[in-house]
Amino acid sequence: MRQQAGFSLLELLMVVTLLAIILTVATTRLLDVAAVTNDPPAEPTKWEVAACRFNQNVVQNATEYFAVTYGKYPLQPHELFLRFLDRKPSCPVHGTPYLYGDFHLVVCPHHSR
User: Fold this and answer.
1) Which of these, 72, 84, 76, lies nearest to 106 by C-alpha position?
2) Residue partners of 93: CB distance under 8 A and separation at least 6
3) In this structure, is residue 20 part of a structural domain?
4) Are 77 and 65 in contact (CB under 8 A)?
5) Which of 20, 32, 55, 92 is 20 to 30 A from 14 via CA?
6) 98 and 53 both lie in a single domain
7) pLDDT band, residue 70 (cuts 50/70/90)
8) What distance in Å separates the CA atoms of residue 11 and residue 4, rounded to the nearest whole number?
9) Range of the domain at 24
10) Is residue 29 part of a domain?
């Protein structure tokens, strides 16, 4: 009888099936744990607020520079992207985009000034 090197198709199918079952059970357990922990959002730390304020100042400076260069203010902060900023302006903590408030002041929806 000739001995073959490697695995048979049936052996591979059994291993793949067992891995699929293990991953399914682990994923459902993790999703159940995530669903149970519906804690209210924590208060932002001083560092998170400071990082957001710093970014707001950078976007505000770019807004003023835009106004000096083009003679008008941009309608939304994302218009500063590519010409005056290297990324779209957003809150570093929550990732929500910045907005303009009164007098073209940059405002974060979560950490408003």
Assistant:
1) 76
2) 44, 48, 51, 52, 110, 111
3) yes
4) no
5) 32
6) yes
7) very high
8) 14
9) 8-37
10) yes
pLDDT above 60 for 113: no
What per-residue string of b and e applies to 20-55 under the rule 16 or more CB within 10 Å gives b? eeeeeeeeeeeeeeeeeeeeeeeebeeebeebbeeb
- Indicate if 55 and 80 belong to the same structural domain: yes
What are 81-97's pLDDT values in tens digits? 888 888 888 888 888 89
As a whole number of angstroms, the distance between CA 63 and CA 61 comes to: 5
| 24 and 51 share one domain | no
Asked if residue 113 belongs to a domain, the reply is no
Residues 103 and 53 in one domain: yes
- Confirm whether 71 is domain-assigned: yes
